[in-house]
Amino acid sequence: MKEINITLPDNTTKSFSSGITPQDVADSIGSGLARAVVVAKVNGLLRDLNHKIHEDSTLELFTGDTPEGHDTLLHSTAHLMAQAVKELFPDVKITIGPTIENGFYYDFDLDQSFSDEILEKIENKMKELAKLKQEIVRHEVSTGEAVDIFSKLGEPYKVEIIEQINPDDTITMYKQSSFTDLCRGPHVSNTSKIKHFKLLSTSGAYWRGDEKNKMLQRIYGTVFSTKDALKTHLHNIEEAKKRDHRKLGKELKLFTFDDEVGPGLPLWLPNGAVIVEELENLAKEYEKNGGYDLVRTPHLTKGVLYEKSGHLDHYKESMYPAMDVDGTEYYVKPMNCPHHHKIYAALPKSYRDLPVRLAEYGTCYRYEKSGQLFGLMRVRSLQMNDAHIYCTKEQFKNEFLAVCNMYLKYFEIFGIERYSMRLSLHSAEELGKKYVDEPELWLETEKWVREALIEGGLDFEEVLGEAAFYGPKIDVQVWSAIGKEFTLATNQVDFAVPSKFNLNYIDEDGESKTPLCIHRAPLGTHERFIGFLIEHFGGDFPLWLAPVQAVVLPLSDKFTDYAKLVVNSLIADGLRVKLNDRADKIGSKIRQAELEKINYMLIVGEKESNDGTVSIRKRFVGDLGVENLDEFKQKLIDEIKNRRLAHRKKTATETE
Q1: Mean predicted confidence (pLDDT) in 316-338
Q2: 3-class state of residue 227 by DSSP
Q3: Is 70 helix (H, G, I), strand (E, B) or coil?
Q4: How would residue 455 be classed by pLDDT, with cut points 50, 70 and 90?
Q5: Which of 227, 596, 618, 655 has a CA 20 to 30 Å removed from the CA of 361?
């Protein structure tokens, strides 16, 4: 039989007989890898482990803890679940079962509802089927053959999908025992590789997402390569429920929504307004140090401004409808950019004036469909940490990097340990449609941004087709303390709009030049960022950000006067303190303060009253003993001034 060479990632080469499979190669390397491997890349293409190799090839083997391996496990477990449902309910009609982040789902057409008891039965059936070590076999057929197969199986949803595929295409299917499903693959080689899974929940879902179609039942699940990874993920799911910003926002009295005000229009309660104010103070402090000038702009603007900026051409579906005022169209503003351009243009500029940095916490209004609204994460009224930097080409790299470094400083302040930067580029096919039709300027500015990131030593990935309509941008993703991903901020280059507004400066030679514009919002919007912070900290905010920083608890009403003196002393130095002088026992008062997630509890009785001291209890730490009031007050002031992350509740590490 013909011999072929298989080259592994470390450049070692092994000889095998033609027809070898990736699983065979794994078996030859070692029993541990043979058990753990779930999928392979042959010559750079993902393949099943039982894929036969007939020529010299490169080979990579992936275990279940790699992104490629985990995705394969998820997909294969979705099929296993569908098989289990089919065996338990022979009349069920199966539809689609894609993977999602750290999970999968499958939609079923069945008259009987999936209760918790039924989910448990399905999961047990899956375990039973997995242990059978069913081989998962790939088949390729024509579309006509695929229609015949699924028609005989009585699967109308599969037939509908196939009939919308090009009839000349080849259809791939996977079969395990009597169960057959449409799928591109790849999949694990047999069901015994699927071990650590859990069905999570059910919901309703319209076929193809169209409310005119039949309502189906969706089952969500997850799978991991190890028992510990699954355990950590399930813990994080429960922790995420506890940290849900909508739940904590209500419990901590941070914000509310009201039907008469309108969906997607948050109302900040006093506690939430404190956090808003502290974030603004932080931004203003760093922007002042960075050479920014504060400006303010109106909430309402003539439509001609957005025609000039191009927003009506590219962004109208996200804007509220125009209102007629004396025969002129006005819009509530969806962004601050055009207004800042007008402020730049209000006074003549020379090269000596550049860079010009204009900052504003401006309120914007964007139309989000009702189904897309989600707590503070997707709203219709938003306050943006916005700024625009007008600079020369020579100044661009330094200005762009200064913004990126501002991100990094904010990440340090908020204890954000994991983040990524994504360079979003244009797509040549969309020039003149989705993007401004300036191909050379696109390539030039993308090159500048790429070079700036490389020179700054910043890690990033590039993504085609995700740029803003007027230029490339950096999108910043962050992960919370329990590994939940959020889109936080953006840093965009605008080479097109400044010329539309006739923005200019006079250079050293007396020539009129158009500046570049950098749009940046390191803290995003109050709404989204505070939603992130609520979940990141689990409501246990650092002292400088906490709505109530300390509570004073008198042991009895005999010590209320001294307790009030303590409160007034702390308030006089700018601390946010409240008094709990209710006639409850001290244990009850402490429990209430814990529920309200207050950092410091100051207990005062006869000894404290006589000595001018306070007995200190700190959240997550416990009793800290007795201290002189003035000395303790100075410690609080220092902790706040330095914005220290003094304590954090321990959580499980993120799921790998």
Answers
A1: 92
A2: helix
A3: helix
A4: confident
A5: 596
Contact criterion met (CB below 8 Å) for 31 and 24: no
- Which residue, among 5, 28, 9, 29, has the nearest Cα to 17 in the 3D structure? 5
> 493: closest CA among 353, 407, 390, 357?
390
CATH top-level class for 69-225?
alpha beta
pTM over 0.90: no
Distance CA(652)–CA(483), nearest Å, equals: 9
Fold of 255-296+357-537: BirA Bifunctional Protein; domain 2 (3.30.930)
pLDDT of residue 633: 96
Ordered DSSP codes for 197-217: EEEEEEEEEEGGG-TTS-EEE
Q: Per-residue pLDDT averaged across 105-132, rounded?
A: 95
For residue 208, CA distances in Å to 81, 143, 150, 214, 216 come to: 20, 21, 19, 9, 10
Radius of gyration of the chain (CA): 30
- The secondary structure element, H or E, covering residue 610 is helix 606-611
Element (H, E) at 425: strand 418-425
Distance CA 58, CA 74 (A): 25
- Reading the block at residue 196, the tokens are 């650590």
CATH number of 3-63: 3.10.20.30
Give φ, ψ of 472 to 5 degrees: -70, 160
Instruction: Compute the distance between CA of residue 155 and CA of residue 164 in angstroms, rounded to an integer.
Output: 15
Per DSSP, helices labelled H in 213-323 are: 227-243, 245-251, 270-289, 303-309, 311-314
CA 579 to chain CA centroid, Å, is 38
Structure tokens at 591: 């429990």
Q: How many residues does the chain have?
A: 656
Identify the residue with better confidence: 188 or 652: 188
Q: Are 163 and 147 within 8 A, CB to CB?
A: yes
Average pLDDT on 589-603 reads: 95
550-641 is classed CATH 3.40.50.800: yes
What distance lies between CA 25 and its chain's CA centroid? 38
State the Cα–Cα distance between residues 404 and 411, nearest whole angstrom.
Answer: 11
Say how many C-beta atoms besides its own lie within 10 A of residue 573's C-beta: 13
Burial class (CB in 10 A: 0-12, 13-18, 19+), 30: exposed
- Domains of the chain: which residue ranges? 3-63, 69-225, 255-296+357-537, 550-641
User: Cβ(167)–Cβ(144) under 8 Å?
Assistant: yes
| φ/ψ of residue 247, rounded to 5 | -70, -50
